[in-house]
């Protein structure tokens, strides 16, 4: 079981196109493919790896729901980015292996997490919020690990599961 590498960060901003253009023009990122999440997002690549995701802050209720974690407090505005100078990193993502061990560790430590199958991919994801700073953490595993364990995600390509 272990963390393998930081996979990506999501920046929510008042100006996603300008943010995208700045990173591409000034740092050499390439704008590339991304799944359809039902809200606009840009994925910026270094070579073949998407490493920076950019979205519009406060775009829609669907986006806010999609990006929330189970422990989010109802009276806290986690989507508060959007004003000039307040763009924020929404979450960090780590590529992992050892899904069963992570689930056991998180559960035994009382960490609430949601599970989902990433849109149009073979990723199984766990989402949680780090409680000290409010940072959302995403852990990505191979879908085959979840299949072997018989895990059923709360979210799939078609939306919320029952």
UniProtKB/TrEMBL annotation:
Pfam families: Glyoxalase. Residues 5-142 form the VOC domain. It comes from the Bacteria. InterPro entries: Glyas_Bleomycin-R_OHBP_Dase, Glyas_Fos-R_dOase_dom, VOC_core. Signal peptide: none annotated. This is VOC family protein.
